[in-house]
Amino acid sequence: MTRPPRGPAARVAAQAKVNLVLRVLPPDASGYHPLETLFQRLALHDVVTVTATDGARHLELDGPMLPETGLGPAEQNLAWRAAEAYARQAGWPSGWAIHVEKRIPVGGGLGGGSADAGAVLRALDAMAPRPLGTTALQALGAGLGADVPFLAGDDVLAIGRGYGERLEPVPALPRALVLLAAFTTGVNTKAAYGWLDASRVPGQPVPRLGLAPEDVRDWTDVVALACNDFEPVVAERHDGVADALRYFEEALPPEAGGFTMLSGSGATVFAVLPNMPDGSPFPDDVQLFGLEVDPATVPESIDVLAQTVTATRVEPVERLA
């Protein structure tokens, strides 16, 4: 069997995200819910490698966070759809080979699929004969999902409005430790929106937060702003989420100056610690597993307990060929 001709290749660290603030507004005339959010990239990432081909199209998934049942048909995967969207817009490439090493828990509100899509867009643009540029990539991402425009961009921290496509950069904050509690049973995003709508009084307005970059000067500001409209309705229906929220809130030392919250529509729960457990500043060379956790205290409902840090830069695209 003759291998199809291959062109340039690039690798990208597809960084996960959390929403440090997530206000979900009532559905508009289109039936979709506008958002007001504060996106934060994490160091935790999938590894996405994209190779341009002469017509052949292929997607391969593996890695420690890939479910045993896989992720469904390749053509429905966001990474594949991102390549299709780019090829339609740019007229290049005619084909691709995409490899995704899944390290981000799947279906947990950490934006793993969206990160892969953003990585594919960035990789293709870095290799393209006529690059489209970041603004065009984010416009393409808006057609793929609310998290994709941010994850196709160049910012580690940004305010998002509308359906995630209206972004306002915020200066990066100092690195903070992030604990993640993830579950094999996720939350259906469409169902979460339905639960939230049903919990609200019809006709009662949901106030916008009016976030501005000057409102986010340090982690103390974030602690005061942190909220997620999905959290109460998801915790009511997902025992693991309720257990993780309670576990982190009880286990984290007040000296760390952090907070605990649901990520996106769930089911991952995260805790942010801007300081070390003894209250000292967070050092640049801290080990990711510097916070000791007694396994006996972790609720059985938590399937994965992991640690990462907030990102302070967007990892660059690495050209391979």
Which architecture name of the largest domain does CATH use? 2-Layer Sandwich
Order of helices and strands: EEEHEHHHEEEHHEHHEEEE
Number of helices: 8
Biggest sheet statistics: 8 strands, mixed
Instruction: Give the strand tally.
Output: 12
Q: What structural category characterises the helix and strand content?
A: alpha+beta
Q: State the end-to-end distance.
A: 23 Å
The level of helicity is 10-25%
Level-1 CATH class name of the largest domain: Alpha Beta
User: How many distinct domains?
Assistant: 2
Shape: globular
Radius of gyration: 20 Å
Q: β content, as a range? A: 25-35%
Uncertain spans: none
Mean pLDDT: 91
CATH topology name of the largest domain = Ribosomal Protein S5, domain 2
Task: Describe it.
The structure is a single chain. This protein has 321 residues and is an alpha+beta fold. It has two domains: 6-170, Ribosomal Protein S5, domain 2; 177-309, Alpha-Beta Plaits (2-Layer Sandwich), CATH 3.30.70. It is built from eight helices and twelve strands. Helix 1 (78-90) runs parallel beside helix 2 and helix 2 (112-127) packs antiparallel against helix 3.
Essential attributes:
single chain, alpha+beta, Alpha-Beta Plaits, 2 domains, eight-stranded mixed beta sheet, four-stranded antiparallel beta sheet, 24% helix, 27% strand, globular
Blueprint of the fold:
Blueprint: E1 6-24, E2 35-53, E3 57-62, H1 78-90, E4 95-101, H2 112-127, H3 134-142, H4 148-151, E5 157-162, E6 166-169, E7 177-182, H5 189-199, H6 219-225, E8 227-228, H7 231-235, H8 239-251, E9 259-262, E10 269-273, E11 304-309, E12 318-319
Parallel strand pairs: 1-8, 3-4
Antiparallel strand pairs: 1-2, 1-12, 2-4, 2-5, 5-6, 7-10, 7-11, 9-10
Helix pairs in contact: 1-2, 2-3
